[in-house]
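TL;DR need structure tokens for one chain.
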Amino acid sequence: MTRMKNFFLSALCSLSINVISVAQTHDFYYKVKHVPLAKPIHAVDSIVGQEVLFDKRIVSFYPDEDNKAISLEIRDTNIKGTKFLNSGFFLVYDYQNHLIKWSRATDFLNSKFEQVPALLIESTLKKSLSRDLQTGNIKWEATTDMYYVQKESNIAIGYPFLRPGTRKSDVLKGIDLDNGKELWQRVMPREYGWNDVFDLNDSMVCVVANGLQAVNIKDGSGWAYYTQTGTSEINKGSLAATGLGIGLGLLTGYYYYGISQDVLTGIVSNPIYADDKIYLASREKISCVNASNGKVIWSKPLVENMASSGTIFLEDGLVYQVNLGKANLGGVLPIKCGSPYIVVYDSENGSQGYLSMLPLEGFVSDLSVGDNYIEVVGKSQLIRVAKQTGEIVKVYPLGTGKENFWTTYIREPLFYKQGNRFKLLQEEYPEAFFLRTSEKEVLRINHDLNMIGKFNSEDFWQIVGVYKDLTVLMNKESISVVQEDGAEVLTFERKEATPFLVEHNLFIVHKYKLQKINIQSLTGKLMAIAGDN
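>> reply
TL;DR here they are.
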């Protein structure tokens, strides 16, 4: 390394701790300072970054790139720091100017915050409060639990809040997000919760609940196609709510508040929307519905005791239905239900092709669709099915016989380390695909469906984010910044920290700390240092 680069690095990597600010004006203590955070691979000194230290534990966060801020939920803990208490604060931290814009003392037993771009909603047991992201002031109040937000129209839809001892309401409401005013009402049954929601066009959305229900987001009008998506036949007990419903259903992706614990939900497939048609399989039937008016184009009954949650896909004029053999108990717990099978239908008229029963123990935990085959994995088998004929080509045994063993396909890039260089697992073994198991294993499977290798999943790194020619990777123990050629230039000790990338800023959340390093300012220097070695 040249003398000039040594001098440059020394200035960059000063170990002195520079306190930017200390404050206790928000009824909690926090301190912003500069601290050494990361170790360059080919240098002596550490890289200095910014750290915000709170006197309460960081529980959740939401980066707001547009406002250069991060929303944080911080909570009190017990003396040992092993249990979160309900008391704490919600705050918005300006990471560009190193200050807290605003904070609010919160009882998190009775209030939840959810944020989407340009919208912050505080949900209590009785109402939704829209808060200004810059000041925290209440902009408006509504008595509706927001389930879905359509940003184009600036309208949300949802139901009245669930109260203790009451049944959930089926009155869907449209809410103007500018002022919180109710725009319209419509009865929309949701006996088994919402399974999905998707846009049909700029003004129409379709909700998968008790079938398919189309809603004009501006006035509530629309058609409905009803079919059964769950069952209470496992237990004839009360369908009353089992607990309090603090809302924010669709903002959190959870739509089953008020579902009894003795009800099976999710006995439905994903919807397929194509060419102004919607395809959906339910507990009763698989149907093709006109997306403009809700009229049934064709429908085929399913065998009742075989139906379950399913996956459907459209290809070459055929609808493939993969019955997964499972449902959700009380909207939450996956349990075995029905039978796993694959069946094919003509997309135009619904005429049935082959039906292939899958010799699978338990239910399908994951599946993969290729050019010629459909492959499914479950508790103890990997099964390959010929897509054209439905023939079972091969059954490969997996698992250890343990009750809760599961397997899923690895679709994300995985990296492993050799020296100070990272390599992409999928590029090193292009002849194989990979499965992850509940035993912290990565299984290498060849194209003949034989296992040819086994790794420890904790030996691999996953991508946190990418900035220009730098990739941020992490595993259980460390966080690494890597060049395009795989050379490691910077490393952090991870412990239990959660890293994330916002533009050129690498953030690390660890217990009471929020740390930040500006990768942009390091890019040329780090790569030059690495190039000298």
